[in-house]
Write a structure and sequence with these properties.
Largest sheet of chain B: none
Number of strands of chain B: 0
Radius of gyration of chain B: 22 Å
Structural class of chain B: mainly alpha
Shape of chain B: elongated
Largest sheet of chain A: 6 strands, antiparallel
Number of helices of chain A: 11
Number of helices of chain B: 6
Oligomer: heterodimer
Strand content of chain A: 5-15%
Shape of chain A: globular
Number of domains of chain B: 2
Structural class of chain A: alpha+beta
Distance between the termini of chain B: 20 Å
Largest interface: A-B, 34 and 41 residues
Strand content of chain B: under 5%
Radius of gyration of chain A: 20 Å
Distance between the termini of chain A: 39 Å
Chain lengths: ~350, ~160
Amino acid sequence: MQNGEFDELRQKLARFLSEQTGCVVEIGELKRYPVGFSWFTFELDAAWDENGKRVDHKLILRWGPKYGVLAPYFAHDQFIALKALEGSGVPVPKVYWYCDDSAVLGGNFFIMERVEGEAALPWTESGGKGAFDESIRPQLGEQFVASLAALHNFAWQGTPAAGLAGAAPLDEVGMRQILWWEQYLHERQLSSYPILEHGMLWLKAHVPKAPRVSIVHGDYRIGNFLVRDARITAMLDWELVHLADPYEDLGWMCMRTWSGRSPLVCHLISREDLYRRYGELTGIAVDPAAVRYYEIFGNFKLAAIHVGAARSFEDGSADLRMAAMGPQIARMLLQVERSLEGEL
Amino acid sequence: MNSLERILEGIMNSLTTEVVPRINDAFARGQALAIVDLLRNLGPRLEWSHAILWQQIEAQEAVLSRVAELCAGQAIKPPPVAPRSFGEHPNANELVARRDELNGIVSATLIWLDAERRKLPAALASEVESALRRYMHEQLQRDMSLTAMPLFKEISKGAKTAAT
């Protein structure tokens, strides 16, 4: 996105916000964050009148590009999930508006509050040092698990979140996700990947029955939450939110990819403590075999996402990070192979 | 992995539209534009390594040939493999096409084995599976020997330096 396009986006956004608020809205410069490999994230300050007084708002614009790992992008599901979860035990940013008419800003989008905090990355300097200071790590670990448990305990039935994709009976809900990712892979791959076909056959043959159907974040891990003063201030990146087996989040967060060389899940908590605390908070007696199944599925999904990134670049994405994920497909395939062989 | 043509085009496009306009230092802009200039001239002279593509194609043909040999006396047959369609000196695009075609057949053979397994003698099915898995493992090792550690952290942070 070039400088001129930033200005155009800013002007269009000001018009949209003026229509929503019913008054003239002023917007400062848009600042694009380098993090996030899918939706574009822009920071902006906006001001408009509320009860006759000019009020400043610190906002985030999440904007779905035409080409992207998970394109076509729609804001609806993230918006209704985040709206439903406001006031629950899950720390989520307040969402204000969404729009799935790409004519308005050139891509679908939603606008949310800007929450203070820093996002740690799973890739530490040496690969060995933990991502969090030991003085706050245990507290964050507890919050990380408590937030997940609150999400999986959330009674979505009868709320707008019931409109999320994925709901199915307990013995079918897992397979539904496998089929979704199979279709994703086959639509995006530039060449067939035998190890992924092999993995898919295994996944289909071993899918466990879900203990319940929950709202599943889909990318619950280090890197997708903000921390300020030893507190998780917000869980971010809800683009894969759906209804599914809660083990899907547990398996995903336990993947070695998010731990580097740390022995802790997402650099935060031991696997034993995670299982115990999650069980206490949800009433689900954690079955390590089910977690393991969803770790294997997670490795499969991560490989498929890399395949999707390369495809989006081939199709016209101008984002070179997508191309840079292409050569790393091999590393992801190796993770799939190792996880199938029980080496992870 | 993307096509070489698309990668080169994408690098040049990113440098000219995303990077150069945001570099404040004139010398640094000149360096970035020199990369663009070099790539424009390198492009017509580059193609994917024949040696690497041949190594994979030969490994694919070998495993598929082994599977066909193992199943020779059986009533059900694995997916067929068409002969090479290029001449003695194929270009890289022809080799890429052949590699992709054989990737599809290896995948189809895995799916075939899964579907037909019970119609095959158990030992034979195991041997076919072992051959396919061995090929996949060895190919992954070859691919990984060509793959550098990612710079995702530096990319995500917009770092000023990176280990190369």
